[in-house]
Write a structure and sequence with these properties.
mainly alpha
Length: about 100
């Protein structure tokens, strides 16, 4: 099955969908994604989408530069703080004692 994110966006925009401005490069609709990515990277030392991006590069759906940009893009700190606050996690959620 072909994967082309621009084609996907173009198709769903016909139905009125707009990409939210407060989500990261690896999400189309979820504020939790930025927070989860931060926790994952802090606890495990790598981006949770690294293997998926590597596979998309190997299969030729995206180029390596695009994949690296998506993996190393910093999450929006305001979004991460908002999610922490909504979850009641004002202390450091990135420690192993969550």
């Amino acid at each position: 099955m072909d994967y082309n994110i621009e084609d996907i966006f173009k198709n769903i925009e016909r139905f009125g969908w707009e990409k939210p401005k407060d989500v990261d490069a690896n999400s189309t609709n979820c504020l939790l994604n930025s927070f989860g990515n931060c926790v994952h990277k802090q606890r495990l030392g790598f981006h949770p989408y690294a293997f998926e991006m590597a596979n998309l590069v190997r299969e030729g759906y995206i180029d390596r530069t695009t994949a690296l940009k998506r993996i190393y893009q910093q999450e929006n700190p305001h979004t991460v703080e908002l999610v922490k606050k909504k979850l009641g996690l004002m202390e450091n959620p990135f420690s192993d004692k969550m």
